[in-house]
Amino acid sequence: MTKTDDMTKMMQDMLSALPMDATAMQDAFKSSAALGEKLSKVALEAAEKSTEISSKWTKDTLSKLGEVTKIKEEPADYSKAMTEYASAQAEMVAETMAAFAEVAKKVQMETVELMLAAGKDFSEDASAAVKKATEEVTAAAKKATVAK
């Protein structure tokens, strides 16, 4: 009565009785890592393109602002310069937002394509793993039945 069961031994025996295929886990990890790499590539390309767009917008804005700050002969020329700057800025904003929208659209399309491909791959891998596990469990159950 004072003897306690060795739970570690019981767990080891139980787990060794169940067939386990570590390659399925490794394949799943590799697939997951590959998907992560592809998604990271999409995100980094988008960040690079967005930075280029922002940089161009900043440079264009500063060059247009330089025209506003120049000395003018007539007071009316200052208001004309501000009007031209505001008009140019409105045009640049529209162009820049359209460029950002194109980047976002490209990221969205590439992400959807990757996720659909990954879903298909994961589904195929899962089906193969379940089929293999079923065969192994069936074989182990038959062996256990025969051993009795």
What does this structure look like?
The protein has helices spanning 7-17, 22-69, 75-147. The chain has 148 residues and is an all-alpha fold. It has a domain at 35-137. Helix 2 packs antiparallel against helix 3. It is rod-shaped, with a radius of gyration of 32 Å.
Q: What overall geometry do the principal axes of the alpha carbons give?
A: rod-shaped
Q: Name the beta content range.
A: under 5%
The arrangement of helices and strands along the chain is: HHH
Work out the helix count: 3
Report the oligomer: single chain
- Average predicted local confidence, pLDDT: 85
- Fraction of residues in helix: over 70%
Q: Based on DSSP secondary structure assignment, what is the total number of beta strands?
A: 0
What's the alpha carbon Rg, rounded to whole Å? 32 Å
- Distance separating the two termini: 28 Å
Q: Uncertain segments of ≥5 residues (pLDDT<50)?
A: none
Class from secondary-structure proportions = mainly alpha
Biggest sheet descriptor: none
Gist of the model:
With about 150 residues, the protein is mainly α. The protein has a domain of about 100 residues. It is built from three helices and no strands.
Keywords:
mainly alpha, 3 helices
Protein topology:
Layout: H1 7-17, H2 22-69, H3 75-147
